[in-house]
């Protein structure tokens, strides 16, 4: 029996134009003083039953008592796809999980019926209204109270509210929410993420007064020239039956600790339509000017509190609502996005609501953990890709300090060029954007509205843009599709005020900035795709961004992997990607492309991100003996950070001190004299400058490292003659070479990274037009199977030194057919007892030739890396190394010195082949032996899995490679290990 037909329109879930029935207008979520006695959370365990289609849900599933058969308990908020209901998550990127065209739905369309009772106190209904709040339901939902239809809502990422006063009675009431997994709306929710299902945000019921504050809009602006704040508080009052005379609103502004700053007189709430021509709603508007406010910025997130009291005709306060606000202004001027009159760097990431066990149901703690970790890695901007996130995220961004692009839940990726002009989808387009703006209008952290993601560019975009511009003239707009389809220079001005391309090559953004034609700031909405071992050329991007007019940064793709915890038959768990739940069609591990793992462990590239996004940069000065110190903050002087310097000779610290460059202002730079003399003897000399916070911040304790730089004062390249550091007893060559469980052999292959090519999804590149082609080329050449010495010409000579060391001179000739190969070097294996590493090179973390700017040269010690990526691939390299010691617990060590140019190396428990054949981290078996690769050249990483491939300067051409390495066996001092 088709109970959903009660709705009145047949099959609303299949109708793109039916976006809501009986839904209340969107409102700003406010704090109501003493409001808790009027609100009951419905979060917790609900009865739940799953059906194959909405059509197969019988009336009795909504009206009859819940029985043991067929019913189970699930947690709300939660996705039923994460809770053993038999229905699983499904991952696709561009393609829909079922066949179109829109609004065609799949034959099997899981539909969940959620049931629970709600207790309504007598006081709640007496002259009051009862409202049900559904925080988020994927994809559409219908509400029934005591068996009667109450309302229907769409948009998985925004709340829906229903006035259920007339359906409830005092005491126990039966609530049923039917959630349909796929709907006509799914075609505009085709984001690159897991398709989930269910009630994934909070649900509550509350009682609202017969006459009450319906909405509290606060526009807090800043006059940059005077430092004054201007506030406009618009309080909308709802009268349940008919408007009454004599109601008023008193509004006030106070500091967070309650000090009054300004207050209104009683403002009469217009009650009558007597003059319909001038009646603008039951609204009380208060405007105030406040001299010398503390402005809000991500660097200094100052907030104030607005208090609005509703006063009845007898003069009694019946309701008090509060809102936190921040005074700031945003504008686009002179090719720059300005906050409070200053350009800001967009040190950004894209963020999804995601949790490895809860799916889309994120908690406040989850969100806080995300934001604190972002700030701790110098990330100060996020884009809520690709939908309005849980509303508490924005409260946290206001509090902690984070610039936000708030994005509407619109992505019609699979039907990119048609739905944006399809009249059936016009209303949903407008409502998705408008309702987001209505919800989030008060947040100072939101600096741009985004019209959605990857939905072509059409009439519906300009319609939505027009609505937003009129409703909120204070914020510029962002929409990538407008410039993708109509051009960067002057395309799509109705829908975007910023040029916000995704994955552009560095040369393209540089050309946009340098030619001076484009008048809008360029902020990449997505760049540097963090899939697997990636994010090559981050510092190349930022060299161009910081030196080219009109460029302001961008949002890395993306904050974290969307791995989902999966229990295997043996009881162990792993983080799963698309397809591992039997979900087809799927886009496999394209869902694992975060800088953090799904459970919030930073991947190695995060170190480079932190460096690239540092608030202060130090480089060699314009004159010898000086440093250039550049403050990259917009509102803070440098003396807010503490700084130290360390002088290093041959990688070892020899002198240290406090670095005091003075109070360099925001966006200013200064020439500062070197804090120490350069030692006279030979050898490499480097100066490292480190900056840390002076005070506790919400995201880190005082002393947290926020920036570092290293300036080379003398290169001191190793030569054939010089030994790098003292080593004690050396042993004869035979004993040295006996050490190898596999002797050194030429090696030109690496386990392909996701950027080299999609080993698990070879068809993806053709399907969505992204992906690297190197892997195909390398496989065709047989590089993954043919021994290197059959692919390239090689010659090795061996000479024995007086000290017992053995020097190998290598000559490798790479034929033209193998140009742009993974690496040129050697590989050998040592017994497993060799686990302690000590080296003079870049570190301490994994780094690659195009991702090593933040990795300092020093003498580092460390252990053997574990593979950090969900799909096994090349990992663990350290570049620019002068010498490396690999020791056992007793200090017995193999030492390798660069003779001439430094080398790159890795030491892991996996061969490239082990890594290449494994499809998931859980399949990777650690060898006992230590597998050591020493390369004279190693291809960069690039970001070709979605974006530009490795720059030419980090590729390996055909031709002759010559290098030499000196091997010795030494006893390393225990203290050095
Ligand atoms: C593009 C999307 O905007 C984003 O959601 C994500 O898919 C990202 O890039 C890649 O992971 S999609 C791409 C085909 C351009």
What can you see in these coordinates?
With 977 residues, the chain is mainly beta. It is built from 15 helices and 55 strands. Helix 3 (364-376) packs parallel to helix 4 (391-400) and helix 5 runs parallel beside helix 6. Mean pLDDT is 95; it is low at 719-729. The structure holds 1-methylethyl 1-thio-beta-D-galactopyranoside.
Bound molecules: 1-methylethyl 1-thio-beta-D-galactopyranoside
Are there runs of 5+ residues with pLDDT below 50, and where? 719-729
Overall body shape: globular
State Rg: 31 Å
The fraction of residues assigned to DSSP E strands is 25-35%
Biggest sheet descriptor: 7 strands, antiparallel
* Oligomerization state: single chain
Class inferred from helices and paired strands: mainly beta
Q: How many beta-strand runs?
A: 55
Average pLDDT for all residues? 95
N-to-C terminal Cα separation, in Å?
Answer: 73 Å
- Read across the widest sheet, the strand sequence of neighbours is 1-11-10-13-7-4-5
Number of helices: 15
DSSP helix fraction: 10-25%
Could you provide a short overview of the structure?
This protein is mainly β.
Question: What secondary-structure arrangement, pairings included, does this model have?
Answer:
Layout (H helix, E strand, L loop, with lengths): L19 E2 L9 E2 L6 E3 L2 E8 L8 H4 L8 E5 L13 E3 L18 E10 L1 H4 L2 E7 L2 E2 L1 E6 L2 E6 L6 E4 L7 E10 L12 E3 L2 E2 L3 E7 L1 E13 L4 E12 L8 E8 L4 E4 L3 E2 L14 E8 L13 E8 L5 E9 L4 E4 L2 E4 L2 E2 L2 E5 L13 H13 L4 E3 L7 H10 L2 E5 L18 H15 L5 E5 L8 H13 L5 E2 L1 H7 L19 H9 L7 E8 L8 H10 L3 E7 L6 E4 L5 E4 L28 H8 L3 E5 L5 E6 L9 E9 L2 E7 L10 E5 L11 E9 L11 E10 L18 H5 L4 E6 L16 H5 L5 H7 L7 H4 L1 E8 L5 E9 L8 E8 L5 E8 L12 E7 L15 E4 L1 E5 L4 E8 L3 E6 L3 H6 L12 E9 L20 E13 L6
Parallel strand pairs: 28-29, 28-34, 29-30, 30-31, 31-32, 33-34
Antiparallel strand pairs: 1-11, 2-24, 3-16, 4-5, 4-7, 6-14, 7-13, 8-12, 8-16, 9-15, 10-11, 10-13, 17-18, 18-22, 19-20, 19-21, 19-23, 23-24, 25-26, 26-27, 35-36, 37-38, 38-41, 39-40, 39-42, 42-43, 44-47, 45-46, 46-55, 47-54, 48-49, 48-51, 50-53, 51-52, 52-55, 53-54
Bound molecules: 1-methylethyl 1-thio-beta-D-galactopyranoside.
């Amino acid at each position: 029996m088709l109970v959903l037909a009660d709705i009145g329109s047949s099959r609303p879930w299949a109708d793109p134009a039916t976006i809501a029935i009986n839904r209340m207008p969107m409102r700003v979520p406010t704090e109501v003083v003493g409001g808790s006695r009027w609100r009951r959370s419905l979060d917790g365990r609900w009865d739940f039953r799953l059906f194959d289609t909405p059509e197969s849900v019988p009336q009795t599933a909504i009206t009859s008592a819940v029985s043991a058969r067929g019913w189970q308990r699930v947690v709300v908020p939660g996705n039923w796809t994460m809770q053993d209901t038999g229905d699983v998550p499904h991952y696709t990127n561009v393609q829909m999980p079922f066949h179109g065209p829109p609004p065609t739905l799949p034959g099997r369309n899981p539909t969940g019926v959620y049931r629970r009772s709600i207790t309504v106190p007598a006081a709640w209904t007496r002259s009051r209204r009862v409202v049900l709040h559904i925080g988020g339901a994927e994809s559409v939902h219908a509400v029934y109270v005591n068996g009667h239809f109450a309302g229907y809502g769409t948009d998985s990422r925004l709340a829906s509210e229903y006035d259920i006063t007339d359906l409830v009675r005092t005491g126990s009431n039966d609530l049923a929410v039917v959630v349909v997994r796929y709907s006509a709306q799914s075609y505009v929710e085709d984001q690159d993420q897991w398709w989930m299902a269910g009630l994934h945000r909070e649900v509550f019921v509350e009682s609202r007064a017969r006459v009450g504050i319906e909405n509290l809009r606060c526009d807090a602006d800043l006059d940059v020239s005077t430092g004054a704040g201007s506030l406009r508080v618009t309080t909308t009052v709802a009268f349940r039956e008919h408007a009454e005379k004599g109601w008023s609103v008193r509004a006030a502004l106070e500091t967070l600790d309650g000090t009054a700053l300004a207050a209104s007189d009683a403002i009469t709430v217009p009650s009558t339509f007597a003059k319909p021509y001038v009646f603008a709603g039951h609204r009380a508007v208060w405007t105030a000017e406040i001299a010398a406010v503390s402005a809000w910025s991500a660097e200094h997130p100052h907030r104030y509190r607005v208090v609005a009291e509703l006063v009845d005709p007898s003069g009694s306060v019946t309701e008090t609502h509060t809102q936190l606000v921040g005074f700031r202004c945003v504008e686009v001027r002179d090719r720059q996005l300005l906050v409070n009159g200053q350009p800001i760097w967009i040190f950004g990431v894209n963020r999804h609501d995601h949790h490895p066990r809860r799916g889309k149901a994120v908690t406040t703690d989850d969100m806080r953990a995300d934001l604190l970790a972002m700030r701790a890695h110098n990330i100060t901007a996020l884009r809520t890709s690709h939908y309005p996130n849980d509303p508490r995220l924005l409260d946290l961004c206001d509090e902690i300090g984070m610039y936000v692009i708030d994005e509407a839940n619109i992505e019609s990726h699979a039907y990119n060029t048609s739905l944006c002009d399809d009249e059936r989808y016009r209303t949903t387009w407008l409502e998705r954007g408008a309702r987001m703006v209505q919800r989030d209008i008060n947040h100072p952290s939101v600096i741009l509205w985004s019209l959605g993601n990857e939905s072509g560019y059409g009439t519906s975009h300009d319609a939505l843009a027009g609505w937003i511009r009129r409703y909120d003239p204070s914020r510029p707009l962002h929409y990538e599709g407008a410039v993708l389809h109509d051009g960067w220079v002057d395309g799509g001005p109705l829908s975007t005020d910023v040029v916000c391309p995704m994955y552009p090559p560095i040369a393209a953004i540089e050309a946009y900035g340098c030619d001076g034609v484009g008048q809008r700031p360029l902020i990449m909405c997505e760049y540097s795709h963090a899939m697997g071992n990636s994010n090559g050329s981050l510092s190349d991007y930022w060299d161009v961004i910081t030196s080219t007019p009109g460029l302001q940064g961008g949002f890395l793709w993306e904050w974290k992997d969307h791995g989902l915890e999966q229990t295997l038959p043996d009881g162990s768990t792993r983080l799963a990607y698309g397809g591992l739940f039997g979900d087809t069609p799927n886009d496999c591990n394209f869902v694992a492309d975060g800088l953090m793992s799904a459970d919030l462990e930073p991947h190695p590239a995060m170190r480079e991100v932190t460096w690239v996004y540092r608030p202060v940069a130090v480089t060699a000065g314009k004159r010898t003996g000086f440093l250039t110190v550049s403050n990259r903050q917009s509102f803070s002087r440098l003396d807010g950070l503490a700084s130290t310097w360390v002088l290093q000779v041959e990688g070892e610290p020899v002198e240290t001190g406090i670095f005091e460059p003075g109070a360099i202002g925001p966006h200013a730079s200064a020439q500062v004299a070197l804090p120490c003399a350069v030692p006279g003897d030979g050898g490499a000399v480097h100066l490292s400058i480190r900056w840390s916070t002076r005070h506790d911040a919400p995201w880190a304790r005082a002393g947290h490292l926020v920036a570092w730089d290293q300036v080379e004062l003398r290169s001191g390249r190793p030569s054939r003659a010089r030994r790098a550091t003292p080593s004690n007893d050396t042993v004869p060559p035979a004993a040295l070479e006996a050490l190898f469980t596999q002797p050194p052999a030429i090696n030109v292959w690496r386990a392909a990274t996701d950027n080299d090519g999609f080993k698990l999804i070879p068809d993806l590149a053709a399907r969505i037009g992204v992906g690297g082609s190197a892997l195909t080329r390398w496989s065709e050449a047989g590089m993954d199977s043919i021994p290197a010495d059959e692919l390239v010409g090689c010659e090795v000579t061996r000479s024995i030194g007086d000290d017992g060391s053995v020097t190998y001179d290598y000559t490798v000739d790479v034929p033209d057919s193998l140009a742009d190969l993974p690496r040129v070097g050697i590989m050998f294996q040592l017994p497993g007892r060799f686990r302690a590493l000590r080296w003079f090179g870049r570190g301490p973390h994994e780094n690659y030739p195009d991702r090593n700017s933040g990795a300092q040269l020093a003498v580092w010690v460390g252990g053997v890396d574990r593979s950090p990526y969900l799909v096994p691939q090349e990992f663990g390299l350290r570049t620019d190394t002068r010498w490396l010691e690999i020791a056992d617990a007793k200090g017995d060590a193999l030492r390798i010195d660069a003779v001439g140019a430094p080398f790159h190396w890795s030491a892991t428990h996996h061969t490239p082949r082990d890594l290449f054949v494994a499809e998931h981290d859980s399949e990777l078996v650690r060898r006992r032996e230590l597998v050591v690769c020493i390369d004279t050249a190693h291809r960069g990483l690039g970001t070709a899995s979605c974006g530009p491939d490795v720059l030419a300067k980090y590729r390996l051409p055909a031709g002759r490679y010559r290098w030499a390495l000196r091997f010795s066996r030494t006893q390393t001092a225990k203290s050095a290990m």
